[in-house]
Amino acid sequence: MILLLITDLEIGGTPTVVRELALRLARQGVAVEVACLAGRGPVADQIEAVGVPVHCLGACCATDVRAIIRLGQLVRQQKYHTVLSFLVHANVAAALALATFGGHAVRLIQSIQTTQPNPRWHWLAQTMAAHGAARIVVPSPSVAEVARERCDIPGEKITVIPNAVDVDAYAGVASPFAGTRIGFLGRLDPIKRIVDLIDAMTFLDDCYTLHIFGEGSEHAVLVEQITRLGLSARVTLHGQVSSPQDALGKMDILVLPSDAEGFGLVLIEAMAAGIPVVAADAPGIRDVVQPNQTGLLVPCRAPAALAKAIDTVATNVAMRRRLVESARQDVETRFTWEPVLRQYRQLLEV
Fold first, then answer.
1. I need a labelling partner for 275 at 20 to 30 A (CA). Which of 54, 172, 302, 335 fits?
2. What is the pLDDT of residues 153-197, one digit of tens each?
3. What ranges do the domains of the chain cover?
4. pLDDT at residue 19, as a whole number
5. Which value, to the nearest 10 degrees, does the dihedral of the CA atoms of residues 298, 164, 119, 286 take?
6. What number of other Cβ atoms are within 10 A of residue 229's Cβ?
């Protein structure tokens, strides 16, 4: 039996990957369960709805050792042969639980999903946790590079498996009439540089509106910025959505202005939906978006350049059509679940 372990099961990119991986493994007859260090989140309900057991370990903070004890007990009780953990807190918890509670015979595989440089202690913790892992899975060459540089993980220990989407699930999401609705979907976190996207609105005509979907620590900062710039009539914070399709259906262009990404799952979701993408030329993102072929890339922290790229996509019909068609073909070639699941099954030896 396999355990997929993650920090939490709130709405987000990595919880989505875990949900879809668990669903597809179960459909192919693989015995799989999911656990999260935190309390119950909405993705837990989605996973259990397809018959996969979920264990929420109830950590109240990142240093709550009780969750590690509960994880060790769970591993002994369920007799998993492999634990695949996602994100640094889960990677550390899995390494400690298996080392402390007699899980030495359990194969540990860890997944690093980010290129974000800070907080630096995350990378120190990941360096120590990686010693107990048989393999390290990363979603992109950019993450592989930082894993080697920051954690001193040997290249031969790293396996690159990209994120994936079900292309059919995004059919009909895009509006047939291209417009000027700009969209962002993701955590409201400083690394996402949503402040640059809001600044870009000051360079665009009043016909452009910005729709921000997600929750996070930067909510108050964004509200203050929107008010200060007099953009309340053109910028809307919609909050969290239950599915990416709900958000993507309300935008004509997806923008991801992050300083760093591990992959950027939302990029391939938009590309599958037929929505053109504009993004920052940052690690992780440049592994997904082929510049001027499947989307437009601009320098990081450059609101004026961001605005120019958005306006180009919105007004150049021929370019927009070319980007959309090439992007969908690229997703179908590189980022669908059939080849990705095959890679995971080989990794998990099931």
1. 302
2. 999 999 999 999 999 999 999 988 889 999 999 999 999 999 999
3. 2-164+336-348, 167-334
4. 97
5. -20
6. 14
Residue type, 69: I
Rounded CA separation 150/28 (Å): 36
Q: Which tokens go with 147?
A: 């894993």
Give the span between the Cα atoms of 89 and 126, in whole angstroms.
Answer: 8
The pLDDT assigned to 105 comes to 87
pLDDT lower than 50: segments of the chain: none
Would you state the structure tokens that stand for residue 346, as one six-digit string? Answer: 């080989």
Looking at residue 103, its pLDDT comes to: 67
Q: Which of 293, 188, 176, 267 is nearest to 235 (CA)?
A: 188
**Can you give the pLDDT at residue 62?**
81
* Domain over 2-164+336-348 is classified CATH 3.40.50.300: no
Looking at domain 167-334, its CATH class is alpha beta
Q: What backbone torsions phi and psi does residue 242 show, to the nearest 5 degrees?
A: -80, -20
